[in-house]
Amino acid sequence: MFDPKENPHRRFNPLTREWVLVSPHRTKRPWQGQVEELPPDEHPAFDPGCYLCPGNSRAGGAENPEYTSTFVFQNDFAALLPGRVESPPAADPLFQSEPVNGICRVICFSPRHDLTMAEMAVAEIRPVVDCWAEQSAELNATPGIAYVQIFENRGEMMGCSNPHPHCQIWASSVVPNEVAKEDQSQREYFEAHGRTLLSDYLEKEIASGERLVDVNDEFAVLVPYWAVWPFETMIVSRRPVAGVDALDDAARDGLSAILKSVTTRYDNLFRISFPYSFGFHQRPAQCPGEGWHLHGHFYPPLLRSATVRKFLVGYEMLAMPQRDITAESAAAHLREAPEIHYRHLRSQP
Ligand SMILES: [Zn+2]
Ligand SMILES: [Zn+2]
């Protein structure tokens, strides 16, 4: 008889309509969440050489104000530029291109160079959530913008060399690939069932609890059934809100608390500042949002310890993504990870 804890199988992601191969029999070796001695990960509260710290100069010559909470500025090396450029339609279907324009901004979460979301208080994360909401509302209403992508790259392993807590917003004149896939799946599900795909999914996840990491009145965080990355998680709003800009006061508090919970658990898993890429998926700018259900994805690269990372190579580049540790087992490890950050534990008498 088929046993998902033993037998190789594939799982379906209803948001992207792609499959992931799960090979649980390969994790017969015991759990090795070992703590490895890494060089101390200490940073000063202010770094005179950091282009994000208050009062410092950026590469483009601009000077940061002495900000005290969040701070937003136009990316000095933007991947997208404002201003629409006209181009004739592609003549050859094998060589298609089209201009893309947009707006790229950076949001500093805090003036403190040495903090991360995991080490910020819930009350300090809340202004960041407010900033995301304001930026989403403004950019969604900007003519020519089709999608607002908020994302954070955390840690050198994810290609982020500056530890100052910050994220980016890329607002583009096109709906990007991942969002287009989820847009179609969610719209079709809503048309067929009259409920959002993630409302139905979340209801079942909360009932089972198997993959749930934490939940409050407004948000839940779980390891999705179809997760690809070992400790991948998804943050889902409990009410079917379509975008960050639609979150009310209570939902913003709930989101701040769930972000604090999941990032703290991540750091405590291997007692390091856990690297990840995080971002929201929300309704495209020009769409009424029917069927859209706000959620965030955390994609962390680490596998078994602070230094063993997962690579998507070989079979995964050529065939399909694959994982060994099951989503259920990853969720259990995150659920059991302490809710108090290890650095704060260490500093207690
Ligand atoms: Zn800094
Ligand atoms: Zn998504």
Explain what you see.
The protein is of the alpha+beta class and 349 residues long. It has one domain (13-26, 39-83, 97-346): 2-Layer Sandwich (HIT family, subunit A), CATH 3.30.428. It is 26% helix and 18% strand. It has helices at 122-140, 177-193, 197-208, 249-270, 315-318, 327-336, 342-346; strands at 9-13, 18-22, 71-74, 102-108, 147-154, 166-172, 212-215, 219-222, 233-237, 276-281, 295-299, 322-323. The chain has a 9-stranded antiparallel β-sheet with strand order 3-4-6-5-10-11-9-8-7, with helices on both faces. Strands 1-2-12 form a 3-stranded mixed β-sheet, with no helix packed on it. Strand 1 and strand 2 (18-22) form a beta hairpin. The mean pLDDT is 93. The structure holds zinc ion (ZN) (2 copies). One zinc ion (ZN) is lined by residues 47, 50, 52-53, 113, 164.
Kindly list the characteristics that best describe this protein.
HIT family, subunit A; binds zinc ion; 7 helices; alpha+beta; 349 residues; three-stranded mixed beta sheet; globular
| Apparent shape | globular
In round numbers, the mean pLDDT is: 93
Q: What would CATH call the class?
A: Alpha Beta
Poorly predicted segments: none
| CATH topology value | HIT family, subunit A
Secondary structure tally, helices: 7
The helicity comes to 25-40%
User: What is the count of structural domains?
Assistant: 1
Short description:
The chain has helices spanning 122-140, 177-193, 197-208, 249-270, 315-318, 327-336, 342-346; strands spanning 9-13, 18-22, 71-74, 102-108, 147-154, 166-172, 212-215, 219-222, 233-237, 276-281, 295-299, 322-323. The protein has 349 residues and is α+β, with helices and mostly antiparallel strands. The radius of gyration is 21 Å and the shape is globular.
